[in-house]
User: Fold these one by one.
Assistant:
Number 1:
Amino acid sequence: MAGIMQMDVLSPDAYVLQTDEVSYIEVQTTDGGLGIYPGHATMVAALAQAPLKYRDGSNNTHYVFVDGGFLEIKENKATILSTAAEAADAIDAARAKAALERAQAKIDNPPADVDMAEVIGALKRAQGRLKTLELAGKAH
Ligand code: ATP
């Protein structure tokens, strides 16, 4: 059907989202922002730790946090595979704020055995979750 595509967002923990009615998707790839309309050519892209935006069949906008991973577009279906992903409604703001503060404290005062790459990953996840809530208009 013209104007509509399918989208699945999957993580090892859950089928985060499965929908047959998406009219537009916007993701942050490692090369920058990408807007996808139905009928898009087959492609694969690596994703940044960032909010994903999509519009449903009724033109309502939704946001999902995606912790990096991959996007595949094939046969009018977008599949997003990520180590973690949450729809804005499922994000716990207090938990993300606490994670952000923990990561920031380790950056400010690094413990001797710190794995800085892991700390920066945690910081970006927390920032991405809070940004997703902000875009969705949910106070935090
Ligand atoms: P934390 O330190 O709070 O556990 P984290 O970034 O280390 O945060 P992840 O490893 O990314 O957590 O995720 C572990 C699981 O918890 C995943 O299923 C993820 O979807 C979920 N999760 C993590 N943080 C949140 C949050 N703020 N709100 C909702 N779900 C979350």
Number 2:
Amino acid sequence: MNPLLTHDGLPAFGAIRPEHVEPAVRAQLESNRKTLAAVLAGGERSFGAVVEPLERMHHRLNRTWSPVSHLNAVMNNEPLRSAYTSCLPLISEYQTELGQNETLYAAYQQIARHEGNRLDASQRKLIDNALRDFRLAGVALDEARKARFKELMQTLARLQAKFEENVLDCAAAWSKQVTDEAQLAGLPQAVIARARATAATRKLDGWVLTLDQPTYLAVLTHATDSGLRRELYEAWSTRASDRGPQAGRFDNTAMVEDILRARHEAATVLGFANYTEFSLATKMASSPREVREFLEELAAHCVPVARRELAELEAFAGARLEAWDIPYWAERLQRERFSISDDELRPYFPLPRVLEGMFAVASQLYGVSFRERSGVELWHGEARFFDLANAAGEPLGGFYLDPYARAQKRSGAWMDECIGRLELESVRELPVAYLVCNFLPPVAPRPALLTHDEVVTLFHEFGHGLHHLLTRARYPSIAGINGVPWDAVELPSQFMENYAWSEEVLPRISGHIDTGAALPPEMVRRLKGSRTFQAGMRAVRQLEFALFDLRLHSEYDPARGSRLPEILAEVRTRVAVVRHPEFNRFAHSFGHIFAGGYAAGYYSYKWAEVLAADAFAAFEEAGVFDGATARRFVDSILSRGGSRDAMEAFVEFRGRKPDIQPLLRQFGMAA
Ligand code: ZN
């Protein structure tokens, strides 16, 4: 029996082999197609006869596919990767087929019309979401438009991939040989050692610096040689453009125009005025104007603070600072003010202590308990499994924790769905999550020691995990994080981060590895100071990106083209405080919006931060462990998943719409 087709209990990670992947996916897709055909042939158009079987079949496909994409991310190897990659087109073809299925669309429309009043609110929301997604996939278009829409989607996929490729190729084609060690002064030893090794591999003397993010950031932050900083800054900020050391070689200028033109046309084919409206159709924010006003209101508060911070930094440096000087001087000022290093912090945050404290926080807030389960099949000896139960001891679900960095594991940290919650008359399944991090592995006999950054990351992913596990939604497509708008999905995770900074919580999650002592108050003070350090300058940078992205996609006009340089210049005049040199071409490598999923959505970062800070403020007002507030938070937000409009849910919890003041306070910028 193929272990990927056994859908009871937890995945049999010990038994899954790369050769199981494609046959399982093909079999599951075939079975789903049969189910769909039978459902549609059946003729009955009711929630129970159409939607429930479809929810079950999505659930089964996810049970087959989730362990595969998980293993591909945490235990990558060549046979697995090729099995995984070979299934991607199969799945995307299946999804397109579903999204374009007119009979199915008509069935959902009929259910909405005839049964709408008898459905409960979450069932109606599920149907509304599905109808919206059908329309966004172009199902309601006439044949000519449908064909054009499909063509535009394919063009966009190709252009966006090429955009990213140009950025990577341009960076890979650049390097700098250094033969005078003095030029490397200030750089961390690890960076110097790597530059040495790169030179050796290329059979060159001295050191070779490459244009990757860690090297770039290390040079900008630590190199005392301002000439070296400027050189890397120029190479980095002109990637894939018409300027800089590789001007014109990998130029994305035309690509950007083509991408914006295709997006605009695709949006108008679907009946939207511009691509921003299309992007917002699935988000919590309701209109381009609302987003713009939101960003401008934040900017009005942050710009004066950022200007002050820059003036202060220049006074400290005793000079007018160029763009490539700022990270370097900021680092020095921060060290002088708050001097607190990761090496000082690590001994206070042994992983077992942090986990125990974090679970205690969740128990106190939500009345849940955690118990590690042994004997669970795992993909690696470092992974663990925890069961989650409610106050009455009834099981709610569980999660895997895979904490340490290792080869074959994707970088970063994330929460992903292993099993979604499903509750139908015939079947009931509890949610299961993966929490994956890349912490420094322990050195025996000591446990892993975390930096405070890593503690915050753990709380963040745990927040996503609680969103997935505390859901009460009965259908997988609206349970946990599913169906939650992109600009609201980071609310529970960023909310949870606040606990890792709380003075009430820090003593419970810290305990010195040798003495057991909690983090001393003086270190707490310095740690918290570093959180708000130059918050204004960091915020205006994000606002610059967000406003640029928003205006570019809202104001696109086929007759005039993108007007990218003009819009960027206008945005910078309003919100930027750093003086960007004329050659700066940051947009040419802005993959978030030109290659990734953040197009007309970059504002989501700030939007979710505001939601999270405002939600946490409700707890600060009542006490960070206030039981009534926590119950309301679970009832209105954590348990709801995508079963309810995100703004309505927020208003139900907070009694009003989101307010930016708590975020400003959090970063020491309140009026
Ligand atoms: Zn997140």
